[in-house]
Amino acid sequence: METRSSPSMCELRAVAADRGLKYYMHLAKSDLHALLLRKNGTTTGTKLDSLRASETAGKSRSQSLAKAVRTSARLSERKRKAEDGEMPRKKKGKAPEVTTNTLDPIMLTELGPHTFKFVRTNGSIVLYNVDTLVQYILSTGDFSEPETRIPFSDEDLRQMDAGIQRAKLDFRSVWEAKQNKREFEEKKVSRDGLLGLERCAGEFISSMLEIVEGDDPEVGEMQLIMSTFPSFSDVFGQIRSQDEEFAKQCLNHFKEYLRGPPNRPNMDNSGLLPVILEFLDDVGKGNQSASAFGF
Q: For residue 142, which phi and psi values (nearest 5 degrees)?
């Protein structure tokens, strides 16, 4: 009885030819199979298995060779098209622009209708209110982005000028201002001088705080009258003569520093804090100068 595992007709005829049987070409498959089993017994099955294995291996080699040939042909065709410029180019969609801020980086206020877009070297985008950015540049003479210090190009400065014109604001041209470097160099020297005077005044304020927190009010009072107050008055007078608004800001900061934070004020062990604060108020009004102490 023929089953699914019985060999094919070609396999049976190949075995019959190998065994030297006669007239096997005219026999049906089932008859030929039975004849081979009678003549050769189990040897036929072994021969058929070997024949099947060799045919399967041959087919696998043929399929692998055909696949390799097809792959090589495709690669050759793609290479030829690439050399001839026939390869279709993939269309790259324009990536959406993503800004990194919703507040103006200088004033920390909401962005207004007139903004300046700056693309940084890493591809990130930041928006500035054009009016605050232009005022910052003209007041500092620093023609670079405030956050990263990346220099603005001439094209960036022209875009700012165009934004100022659209906003109908009465500001100088930042592009023209950049051409006049000497003006901003003088401002930088003046600003550096003010910062140096502020540091000197800050050292005297630190000395005042040490006296406030000290335990010997008599020694502290003598130190204030003989050294700290006159020196501070002299330095602060120089600051006020150059920039009065900056001097007011410094004085307010000094007072807050002496008082300390509201939730943890500084300890007034010497009882001299009210005296020092009153002195600073008089200095701010111009009533206390170095000449008042004999200097």
A: -100, 105
H/E stretch holding 189? helix 181-213
Classify burial at 138, counting beta carbons within 10 Å of its beta carbon; exposed 0-12, middle 13-18, buried 19 or more: middle
Grouping H, G, I as helix, E, B as strand and the rest as coil, residue 258 is: helix
Yes or no: say if 60 and 48 are a contact pair by the CB < 8 Å rule.
no
Six-digit token string for 277: 């604060």
44-83 tens-digit pLDDT: 555 555 555 555 655 565 566 566 656 666 666 776 766 6
In whole angstroms, give the CA distance from residue 254 to residue 252: 5
CB atoms within 10 A of CB 110: 9
- Stated pTM of the model: 0.50
pLDDT 10s digits, 205-264: 999 999 999 988 899 999 999 999 999 999 999 999 999 999 999 999 999 999 999 999
Give 116's DSSP letter.
E
Cβ–Cβ under 8 Å, residues 131 and 145: no
Residue 288 burial (CB < 10 Å; 0-12/13-18/19+)?
Answer: buried
Cβ contacts of 61 within 8 Å, gap of 6 or more: none
